[in-house]
Amino acid sequence: MNISPITSGSLIPDSSQDSPLVRYALRGLERCWLSEHRCWSHIYHLDGRASPNESLRRSDVFYTLNVLLGMSRIKKGPSGLNLLETFHHNAVQLTVLAVPKYALGMALWVSAELRFELPEQVRRDVRALLSDQAGWKTFRAQDLGMLLTGVVARARAGDREWVSFAAPLYRFLQERFHSGSGLFFDASSGFRRRFASFATQIYLSIACYHYGEFAGESSALAMADACVRKLIALQGPDGEWPWFFDAAGGRVLDFYEVYSVHQYGMAPALLEWAERYRVRGARNALIKGFNWVLGQNQLRRSMLVPDLGLTIRSQIRKRELTTRAPRMLRAIKNAYSGCEAGLIEDSGVGLRLECRSYELGWMLWSFGQRSDLLELTHNSAFGKIPIPA
Fold first, then answer.
1. Are strands 251-254 and 258-259 parallel, antiparallel or unpaired?
2. Which pLDDT score is estimated for 324?
3. What's the CATH number for 20-382?
4. Helices 163-176 & 218-234 angle (0-180, nearest 10)
5. At what angle do helices 357-367 and 57-71 cross, to 10 degrees?
6. What are 200-233's pLDDT values in tens digits?
7. Does the pTM of the predicted model rise above 0.90?
8. What is the rounded CA–CA span in Å between residue 88 and residue 106?
9. How many CA atoms lie within 13 A of 214 on its CB side?
10. Beta bridge partners of 354
11. Residue 353 burial (10 A CB sphere; 0-12, 13-18, 19+)
């Protein structure tokens, strides 16, 4: 299967209907495109190196699917890219590379949103995974959340073979991942279970909203609403979304690192649902979180890179740029001592100078169809991106 190469400027949409935010993200994605692999890159380094794109194949293909999910929501797709061929090429790679289980859930989801058929190899592998209920105990939160979301998305698109998996997956989530604190656990059992990330909350809450609306299941909607309310209560003073939680106690264990994608992509994706279900404070939390990216943050600097159309990945403790060990030890100590986590002195905070393509995919997904937040989608920070004649 062939794909036309992306030429300079061809990822910028042909229509002026898309917002400056969307055109900004598409311009950044053009820089992340790896024509030799027909995908977007694992990392675009922002440290000035001569070859900024770094490829990691199992990550490239998942990130590419995430970008395609975002493109399903823009008004007019890039003229220089064949979405179907790009999807098919990368989806098939999921069956030959050592990818996480959640990547298969993303394949279900994006195929449903773009109305593409699943490659038979992918369909076969996902059915085998979901048919082995004994193996579900190994699922982490992101695996379960994306698989349930993908199953529901396919079912809503009319692919009835996935309907039978939806209720059992939801019951497993309800029984093994729901915490009385309002937050979700990260695993179904084990020591690691209570140590849950922000991503844990996003993926499982979105899955609950999808399933609750599809099946008319009020308990799923109630769990998602409760998680959103808890997250809003724990949002930082400048709108930052904490990274690490004690799901059992409903407490923040560590704010860092604070990821830009959570602020402009993943949290808005969840809060869009919460707005629909009238969760108090959802819209304000979305706006406050987004403004963190625009410079209303601890370092008082924008996390955008306007010259490239990219974003800076995160704000992080300077001493932890290359190791997670102190963060894990600190989280364990805080969990069992009852200490409350907070922001540290500004002098100890630095930047992770990279951008990952999936981050821009989430930006497209969360804002590609929004016309009610012009202060964000048309913010002057995104500039006046030229529109091709």
1. unpaired
2. 87
3. 1.50.10.20
4. 50
5. 20
6. 999 999 999 999 999 999 999 999 999 999 999 9
7. yes
8. 13
9. 25
10. 45
11. middle
Instruction: Yes or no: say if 263 and 236 are a contact pair by the CB < 8 Å rule.
Output: no
Residues of the chain with pLDDT under 50: 1-15, 386-389
In the three-class reduction of DSSP (H, G, I as helix; E, B as strand; rest coil), residue 82 is classed as coil
Question: Dihedral of CA 179/184/189/193: which sign?
Answer: negative
User: In whole angstroms, what separates CA 246 from the centre of its chain?
Assistant: 21
Residues present in the chain in total: 389
Which tokens sit at 44? 């675009």
pLDDT in tens, 314-369: 999 999 999 989 888 998 988 888 888 999 999 999 999 999 999 999 999 999 99
Q: Tell me how far apart the alpha carbons of residues 160 and 15 are, in angstroms, rounded to a whole number.
A: 35
Rg value, the chain, Cα? 20
Q: Could you read off the pLDDT of 30-52 as tens digits, one per residue?
A: 999 999 999 999 999 999 999 99
| Token pair recorded at residue 99 | 């990818």
Residue tagged 């929501």 (tokens): 73
CA angle 335, 243, 197 (to 5 degrees): 70
367 in Cβ contact with 382 (< 8 Å): no
Q: Structure tokens of 93?
A: 């790679």
Q: Where are the domains of the chain?
A: 20-382
